[in-house]
Every structure is written in structure tokens, then in C-alpha cells.
Prior knowledge:
The chain is of the alpha/beta class. The chain is 33% helix and 32% strand.
Amino acid sequence: MTKLPSLIALGFAGLLLSNCAGYTLGGQKPTHLAGVTKLAIPTFENQTLEPRIASLVTNALIKQIQMDGSYQIVPEDEADAVLNGSVISVNRSQFRSNRLNVLRTSQLQMTLSTQFTITDTTSGRPIHKGTSSASSYVILDSNVQNSEAQALEDAAQRLSGTLANEISEGW
């Protein structure tokens, strides 16, 4: 019974000492983006021949940043900074082939690449530039177009997670 108060005191002391180790709860924005609280994200530019990909990526990114909570998404006239981006490539490649016919694809890899710039609205100068890419794998069924659309949506969601981590956590 006398050990319980000493264990509680030891646990409390350990908690207090770990506070000075540099760890904090919540997100840590990169230092060059620390002053940005309101972010505008216009629709990405589409430099590919894939229809609707720009809006798919933009919507996925907005949802990811809203879930993250590090920035408030607002219109451009209310924003501290604007994230402009463009989808630069959509690559399809064979990931697996049919066992009996190596020319027939059974699983497809879709890779989506973007580049982006965050611009300060008051000064007009770029604060942050970067590129982001993500891949998705899909098993092809009889409806190839539907399979590709699902893979692109998954790749857009993966890409938005990577991009949101870069601008909100710095990695």
C-alpha cells in the first residue's frame, strides 16, 4: 500500500520530465508556413489528357486538409495563402500479367504526379513549392474503365495525404 503513492509520484515526475524533451501534442507546421492559418485551394490545372482528374485531386486534397485541421479552407479573397497546383502526369503500367498470356494485364498500377506552389496573398511571393506523387494498384475486371476510375480515385486520395502531410507537418 505504501508503494502506490510513490509509484504515482514517480509516474507524475516522469510525465513532467518528458514534457521538456521537445515533444508537443498536435500538428507542427513548417516554420515558413507557421503564419498561414487560412488557405485557399483553387481547382488544380490539368496538364494531362485524363478528364476530371484535376477536380478529383483538388477535392481529395481539400477533404484531407479539413480532416487534418491545420488550415482553414476559405475563398481566395479571405486567405492568407493560396495553394495552386497542376496534375502533370497520369501513368498506367502493367503490374501483373495473366499467367497464360503475359501480354494481357491482370493488375494495373496507376501513378499520379502533381506539382504545387503556395503563394502568400499579401506579398505575392511563393512560400513553398513542391511535387507529390502516389500510386494505386487495381485488379482489372471486365469493366476496365471502372477499374481505372477506382484506381485514379485511390491514387488521388493517397496523393492528397502525402501533400497534406508535407504542408501541415513538414514531411
